[in-house]
Amino acid sequence: MSDIDWDALREKAVEMTTLAYAPYSNYRVGVAGLTDDGRVVAGCNVENAGYGVTLCAECGMVSELHATGGGRLVAVSCVDGRGEALMPCGRCRQLLWENGGATCLVMTPEGIQTMEQILPQAFGPENLRQI
What we know:
- There is one protein chain.
- This protein is of the alpha+beta class.
- The protein has helices spanning about 5-15, 55-65, 90-100, 115-120, 125-130, and strands at about 30-35, 40-45, 75-80, 105-110, 110-115.
- It has a five-stranded mixed beta sheet.
- Strand 1 (about 30-35) and strand 2 (about 40-45) form a beta hairpin.
- The longest helix is centred in the N-terminal third of the chain and has 12 residues, at about 5-15.
- About 35% of the residues are buried.
C-alpha cells in the first residue's frame, strides 16, 4: 500500500470529474485506477435521458482497462465533483471485484479498504468455475 501514489490517483479522478456528462443530476463522478503493470486507467460518469442507460465512472475505467491491454486493478480512487472520496455503488463494486479481486485497494470515505471488506462474500469468476 505504501508504494501507491494515492494523491496522483485522486488528482486523476478529480480531473475526470471535469469530463463527466451529467446534465440531469449535475453529480459529476471521476475515478482512476492503478493496474498491476503500473498503468493508470480512468473514467467519468455519462448520464442518459433513459436513466437506466447511464454509465458510472467505474464502467468507463474498466472499459479503458481492457481497451489498453487488460490486467488487474490494484488500487482505485473514486471522487465526487468536490473531489471527496466516494464509495462505488453496488454495481460498480461488482465491476471492481471482477477486475481487481479481493485484494484490490479502494480509497473510501472511511479510508483505504480492500474489496473483500467492501464486498464480502462476493460472487466472482471462481463461482462459475464450480459448475
